[in-house]
Amino acid sequence: MEKEQLEHSLGHNRRKFLSKVSLGIGSLALGSLLIPDLFKRGGGEDAIMAALPHFAPKAKRVIYLFQNGAPSQFESFDYKPMLNQHIGKELPESIRMGQRLTGMTAGQSSFPLVGSYFGFQQYGEARAWISDLFPHTARIVDDICIVKSMYTEAINHDPALTFFQSGAQVGNRPSMGAWLSYGLGSENNNLPAFCVLLSRGRGNGQGVYSKLWTNGFLDSVHQGVQFSASEDPVLYLKDPKGMRREDRRRMLDKISELNHLNYQAFGDPEITAKIQQYEMAFRMQTAVPEVTDISKEPDSIIKMYGPDCLIPGTYAANCLLARKLSESGVRFVQLYHQGWDQHDNLPTEMAKQAKDVDQASAALIQDLKQRGLLDETLVIWGGEFGRTNYCQGKIQVDNYGRDHHPRSFSIWMAGGGVKPGIVYGETDEFGYNIVENPVHVHDFHATILHLMGIDHERLTYKHLGRRFRLTDVHGHVVKDILV
Amino acid sequence: MTKSFKFTSILQNLLIILHGLCLVLVLGHERLEIPALLEFIGRTHPLILHFPIVLLLLLTLIFWNPKLSLLDNPQFSKSLFLVTLVLTGMTVLAGLLLAAEEGYVKEEFFLHQWTGVGLFWLATLWFVFWKKQKFSIARFFSTLTVILIIITGHLGASMTHGDDFLLAPFKKESRLKKVDLEEAVSFDHVIKPILEQKCISCHKASKQKGDLRLDGESFILTGGKNGPSIDFTNPELSTIIQRILLPIDDEEHMPPKGKTQLTSEENELIIAWINESAHFDKKLVNYPEDSEFFHLAKNIFVEDRMSNYQFPAAAASTIGKLNNDYRLIQAIYPSSPALRVAFFGRGNFNPKQIDELSDIKGQLVDLNLANMPLNDEDVRKLSQFSQLEKINLNGTGISGTYLDELKSLKQLKSLSLTGNPIDAKNLEKLGQLTQLEQLFIWETRLDPESISTLKTMLPETIIETGFEDKGQLYQLNPPIIQAKSGIFHDKIDVSIKHPIGSVSIFYTLDNTLPDSGNYVLYEKPITIDKNATLRVRAFAAGWLGSEENRSVFFKAGVKPSAYHLTFPPDNAYKGKGAETLFDLQKGDEDFASGKWLGFKDNDCEIIMEFNEAAPLESISLSFLSAEASYIFPPASVEIWGKTQESNWILLHAEKPEQPNQIRERKQLLLDYALDGTPYHQLKAIIKPINPLPKWHQGAGQRGWMFIDEVFIN
To answer: What was the ipTM of the complex prediction?
Structure first.
């Protein structure tokens, strides 16, 4: 803000300086020596923006199905029969290699290995192993790319989730959706470029908070807009009863005039952001009801997504809404589904969680595909880290738990330039360490930006004296999984 | 005289300013970013630089030629000198501004910049000493000036036109003919061009830095003073790989700092080539399918359609004019002439908006009209956009009468028609679009027979028919019970909803599970006027019946005039004491919410008094059971009654059934009839379980009893 104000006031001086130069006064030389930034244009952002996207994008939009709480890879996509054979045996220290533990198992004196309670089958051309909990995902296996070699550094939910969303474990950086909104803008001016949908599962849950969809230091027009499950999907969007649309229009025009006056006086960019947001809200008043109306969806849609898709606030309903928002040009739709934190009661809880998300996730892929949209929409499914190959707490045949595990976990991606029908990366036979093609969270971000036509090293924003990126100073595009 | 004096004095002042500005730019150019206006001035550099060259050479000629004396007309000579110097200064200034723009390799302009600035300074000194009539010093500076003109000019020309521009016609050009992927050879067509561009200038016959030559297979294998360039046993230790991967600031990094660097793709190509045994004459197509080198290299030969559009771009002003809040027009990526257009906002759509696009009909490759209300005639308008590759007509309502007109779109590869009532009689028309690679026809009313006919008509096209309802039965979700409160005084209207409008809702009020043989069909809101458990399920043809949803309703017809507990509840769950039992607020399943009273060490003895002796029908007690939390149904319940005249009489004594395993939390309602007797007082004695049963983890300890409400009717 201080920077912007300074520049704003200098903007006047710059003009004066230039007019004086033409009169032949050499003060420009002196002035530019004293104020080295005089020749700079607004932080260099114009130049950055003008070059975006950096190359032909494969994906135009992203739908991120975030499985909040960290689903276990051992009961989903990382099949480790070794763990079933050695159930109850101790995890060798040579495998653990001093990996730090969470406070929840740090006091545990033994780390008994535990295998999946659920069976696995192989599916698709890639003969990918998928657990019996995900029959619908198994059906679309030829359309997705399973990455079994994700890793992160965080071992607790909040930092890990924040890391996945913003590229840093501490909150205050812009979320990925905000970066894309900043970089690529909205396709549809009548809807926010970045929408957020929340749902709560039946397993042990972890919180989600609005800092996860923050604009951080970017302009606040880029922050995620949360759609709620109530009758008003976007709160405070409706006009009060008795207010005509023309009245609203006139009111906005007057407010805008006042805001422009204020902007000229103070130069605070938040004022222009406010003007834009009022205008968008006005257009959203007609666009949102059009998109969120699911009453005209055919029966086959309900069968695809499951009947829950008609109950606002469920994961299935959010998947359907995500498709509709994405189809209407929303750049980044972020879902969070809570309830994947199975420290105990894993078999019971995970079965419920999987039942809630499996069908609708697969339906979303299928639905995009049958509309010809899958090749331009990138869909991502996954949590913030993995779970341990050993049991947390008492181990029983049909009841066990798994603690947080950052060193390896599985996610899947589909559409938008990602190679379909492949399994990427491999973990050791204990499922503890990655042995092939590791993919760090920064690499994941670099790859997503690449698919959207952005060089992750060139999408920057100058803040507090340095240029920030989503990938900070890291990240490599995972070219092997690109089409 | 005054007039010309004024002219030269302006020129002199200008000259001083130019020197000042140049000095600032020379010293501070690294910190400067140039605004667009000044960028323009910078770009005049190549335009005006020819004036000072010519004028300086002219001045030199006059200066050195004894027959032409500059002193013949000193005023004119001075003006000529000043004009020349001002132009020189302006050229230098423009050059410095131009250099501050991105894209110039620092080392390239470094020399040119300093010789240019030096030239300006020397020429000025030449003028100064000439004016002071110190001719021998002036001659010295004049000589230096001429030398610098030649050097600066040459350096500048090399930057603009390339290194060997002048001599190029004499050199033998080994320009490669473009080859196809099928014929491409690993070294000659992939690696060699990289080496030629970036390495060979220092590693060739005439210049062998580090004794290394890279202009031939044998030289590469021999290597330089550090041994062979390629290590076939440990490819990653090869000198070439190590050198190119060193940080750019490292002395050993190749190409050296200042020279044109390898791109990351070129780096990867070289590394992959060496890792895969550095074959010199292997055909690319003979590399295995999973070869990284092959995958990287093939990109060179596969023409990228997107970067190869031959048509001219539309004017930015045209695109800007056509863009609005409901119609997005943008290049598929910057610098591409190809445009994509998307319409948004059904309510704002008008078919005329398609006609307006005729200004960009030669550039439009991707058109998204999804969910816009179209008429079949509107489809005809699309045939004018001859470059279209992708059309999305999902959910537009067309029946396909004019789809055949799209066959003139030779580039059309993808057509989406999902969610349209495509008429089977228009099948023939759709079948003419043989150029399509992909066709999306989910939910189009085309029956399986028509679809298979279509597949024979379009054998080359991938036809996506989408989700098929294969008769698999899915379970419905349970209906939702909507009621204001679970407790009522006289009666309550309860409505039941289901998100799918067409389902049948079955319900019961007698605490039995509704199914096909035991149900009441829900038609309108139900009126409940006594304690009841409402259980509901949804059924529909083609679906499995839903799980049940249930809700318990309590009638609280009579409130005692006074009531109290003989023994207090446990301190941790004391609520508001006896008041809690008669506040008409049901507790939920959170027993610590304050709406429940918990008893463990004391019995629960409730005394209720009634002023007006009205006939009482029943008393109901509402309990919680949550065995995992040590909360059990009461061990025993006794109901005592006392009329005005009688003593306490035991009316009911019950030992509710106890669970033999941990169950889900649930509420339990026990009803006791009072047979219309006008009791003056009622007493309920409820004992918590003690001890907990053997199967429970707390076996032997006292258990809990939780009660939240007493209803009397």
So the answer is: 0.86
Q: How many residues does chain B have?
A: 713
* Cα atoms in the Cβ-side hemisphere of radius 13 Å centred on A154: 21
Q: How far is B306 from chain A (nearest CA, A)?
A: 8
Read off the pLDDT of residues B302-325 as tens digits, 9 standing for 90 and up: 655 555 788 888 998 999 999 998
A32 and A149 together in one domain: no
Query: Residue B298 — pLDDT band, cuts 50, 70, 90?
Result: confident
**In this structure, are A446 and A311 located in the same domain?**
yes
Would you place residue A9 in the very low, low, confident or very high pLDDT band (cuts 50, 70, 90)?
Answer: low
Q: Are residues A113 and A143 in the same domain?
A: yes
Residues of B in Cβ contact (< 8 Å) with A28: 21, 24
Over residues B236-284, the pLDDT tens digits come to 888 898 899 888 888 888 888 777 788 878 888 899 999 888 888 888 8
Q: Which domain holds residue A24?
A: 2-40
The closest of B125, B109, B141 to B42, measured between CA atoms, is: B109
CATH number of the domain at A399, please: 3.40.720.10
Asked if B60 and B150 touch (Cβ cutoff 8 Å), the reply is no
Total residues belonging to chain A: 483
The answer to whether the CB of B403 falls within 8 A of the CB of B429 is: yes
A312 and A347 housed in the same domain: yes
Classify residue A271: in a domain, yes or no. Answer: no
Q: How many domains does chain A have?
A: 2
Tokens 């695809």 correspond to A304
- SS3 of residue A49 by DSSP: helix
Peptide bond before residue A53 is cis, with ω within 30 degrees of 0? yes
Helix and strand element counts for chain B (H, E): 16, 28
Tokens, residue A408: 């390896």
- The answer to whether the Cβ–Cβ distance between B32 and A453 falls below 8 Å is no
Cis bond before residue B691 (omega within 30° of 0): yes
Highest averaged pLDDT of the listed ranges A107-111, B379-383, B709-713: B379-383
- The answer on A182 and A203 residing in a single domain is yes
Q: pTM, whole model, 2 decimals?
A: 0.69
The answer for A169, left when phi > 0, alpha when psi is -120 to 50, beta otherwise, is alpha
Lowest mean pLDDT among A18-22, A145-149, A227-231: A18-22
Query: pLDDT averaged over chain A?
Result: 88
Listed residue (B225, B89, B219, B105) closest to B158, CA to CA: B105
For A29, the closest of B24, B466, B469 (CB atoms) is B24
The matching CATH number, chosen from 3.40.50.970, 3.40.50.1100, 3.30.460.80, 2.60.40.10, for B474-554 is: 2.60.40.10
Q: Does A260 map to a domain?
A: no
Q: How high is the pLDDT of residue B264? A: 78
Does domain B316-464 match CATH 1.10.443.10? no
Predicted confidence band of residue B184 (pLDDT cuts 50, 70, 90): confident
Binding-face residues of B in 398-427 toward A, CB within 8 A: 414-416, 418-419
Cα separation, B122 vs B330, whole angstroms: 52
Domain check: are A6 and A52 in the same one?
no
Question: In chain B, positions 27-46, which contact chain A (CB-CB < 8 Å)?
Answer: 28, 31-35, 37-38
Helices (H) and strands (E) in chain A, counts: 14, 17
Same domain membership, residue A455 and residue A344: yes
Closest residue by Cα to residue B445 from B470, B472, B426: B426
Same domain, A33 and A123: no
pLDDT value for A27? 39
Identify whether A276 is part of a domain. Answer: no
Asked if residue A455 is part of any domain, the answer here is yes
Task: Report whether B439 contacts B506 (CB < 8 A).
Answer: no
Which tokens is B636 given? 């025993």
Residue B176, pLDDT score: 46
CATH class label, B558-712: mainly beta
Residue B177 DSSP class: P
Residue of A nearest to B332 (CA): A56
